Amino acid sequence: MTKETKQVSVLFMLFSILFCVCLIAANVLETKQIQVGPFSFGRLVFPAISLTGGLIVFPVSYIINDCVCEVWGYGKARLLIWLGFAMNFFFVAVGALCDWIPGAAYWDNDAGFHAVFGLAPRIAAASFVAFLCGSFMNAYVMSRMKIASQGRNFSARAILSTVAGEGIDSVIFFPLALGGVVPADELPKLMLWQVVLKTVYEIIVLPVTIRVVHAVKAHEGEDVYDNGVNYNVMRIFSI
């Protein structure tokens, strides 16, 4: 009996590792509140913006998602997203378990440890749901636009897929995680700023992303178009 084997390249494996590290690092960095601004441009003054440290690294996961979907197609991106979800869930679960176990008598940093690893169940659930929906939307838009444009306009596809993915992520996460905690009139502002700043992040690093995609395509000898692909998110190992 012949057994069908499905393989992934070393480069895809390295992208997957970086993707998982970015997601896990974002969870830890989210506990740090940072302030950006205020800014002034001539007579225009923009107020200070409060953000979380996760903004530094989380957008990188969307850039990797774009690269994987562009080079290897939606099937590999789907596998990558579920792999990232599983590793992130494992990290959060183990962190919560360790946070729950009583500390040693001489341990005096319970408050600090809890602040980093004691992610509230509501926030954790909102984060996981938002990540899955946003990441799959990003990959879907990237895949469909590549077919429609016949592989042209990578920059536009990368930016628009990020806007779609980050938009869904923010629309789901903030109401689920912070509804009733943050004033209702502030939630739309938070969601909008998250989408805007993460999209600006992608635009700034776009020249690097383009070079990486070209280099990976040349190295792998692949440039997949998802003609006839099944977009069912549960077909995890259909690569």
From TrEMBL:
The keyword Transmembrane applies. It is found in: Cell membrane. Its main location: membrane. InterPro entries: YhhQ (IPR003744). It comes from the Bacteria. The keyword Cell membrane applies. GO terms for cellular component: plasma membrane. The chain crosses the membrane at residues 7-29, 41-65, 77-103, 123-142, 154-178, 190-210. It holds the Pfam family Vut_1. GO terms for molecular function: transmembrane transporter activity. Keywords: Cell membrane, Membrane, Transmembrane, Transmembrane helix, Transport. It is a multi-pass membrane protein. Belongs to the vitamin uptake transporter (VUT/ECF) (TC 2.A.88) family. Q precursor transporter subfamily. NCBIfam families: queuosine precursor transporter. Involved in the import of queuosine (Q) precursors, required for Q precursor salvage. This is Probable queuosine precursor transporter. It comes from Segatella buccae ATCC 33574.
